[in-house]
Amino acid sequence: xxxxxxxxxLSDLCFGKCFDxxxxxxxxxxxxxxxxxxxxxxxxxxxxxxxxxxIWDYIHSKEDVVKRxxxxxxxxxxxxxxxxxxxxxxxxxxxxxxxxxxxxxxxxGKPYDQRELMGEAILLxxxxxxxxxxxxxxxxxxxxxxPETMQKLTSEVCGTYSSVEDIKYQSLQSLxxxxxxxxxxxxxxxxxxxxxxxxxxxxxxxxxxxxDHVFPPGTEIGVCNISLHLNSKYFDNPKTFQPERWLQxxxxxxxxxxxxxxxxxxxxxxxxxxxxxxxxxxLALLVYQLKLSFTNPEKELQDGFxxxxxxxxxxxxxxxxxxKV
Length: 325
Ligand code: HEM
Known about the structure:
The chain has helices at residues 2-15, 25-46, 55-59, 62-85, 96-102, 114-145, 147-160, 169-172, 176-188, 225-229, 272-289, 297-303; strands spanning 198-199, 208-210, 213-215, 220-221, 290-294, 308-310, 312-314, 320-324. It has one domain (2-192, 223-324): CATH 1.10.630.10. The chain has twelve helices and eight strands.
């Protein structure tokens, strides 16, 4: 459901038209299965230039490729519809894609061609939905595994608002515990846990030197988020979910310079603010209105929560029961 929620939010904000996967079960299955395949293939694809030609066909079944294609077709279809609607036709104005359609290439002053826009449509859909739903899944799993933490968050949200209509992102930003819970979720299991590659550029003085290591131009280097986030040099009890470490005056070590769930530098995440907005609103609205619990608490606690690194995280399914407060 979190996958469908983030897909609906993304399609609405990005293309001005919601895919409505929360309500449409068939569509939900097709898109979410396609997303899963897409995530599974992305790491292999990223390293394929090093592999002999033709190997792609051996490692991926035709069905998986077709399933993944559905997501790409959906993104391109939404983009084409957006172009056809023009400036007036959107359900809501000011969506992300309308800005891209009006953008000019800095070198030529010309608009971006359709091929580039297609790439952007697919990137936005994949980068903007699966990451956020992974972050929310991680956070909710840890809240359910730590009832005291869930209670603190619920008290903060319910003590601040007297009706669900009052819950707005602007005021949520000043809730310290909510912010701490989100940061802790992004730390303990970042949606992009592995190596984010960068290439050493060829500029004076030539080699890049880090400590005792020398990297010539052209070398691919990178740092894994998870190796920073779970390092006890930077965070006390790194494998424990403790949002308190992010609160002012906490005695727990929490080195913010070693925290980079959205990467750093000019190619860092463009959707970071949107992600914080989405996560804050979703969590606050959930704890205000619903009571969540694991369907099978013994199994969840025994297995723990872990993801597989495939550039972005491949997450397990978490079964949750929902009741109204
Ligand atoms: C919790 C949620 C999110 C996390 C953890 C996350 C993480 C990241 C990371 C680590 C990168 C850098 C990848 C690299 O350097 O190669 C990235 C790039 C990007 N993200 Fe996010 N992201 C999130 C949500 C979003 C959302 C909601 C959007 C909105 C559409 C978005 C759009 C993008 C785009 C467009 C890029 C590419 C930037 C570029 O290449 O210049 N992300 N994200």
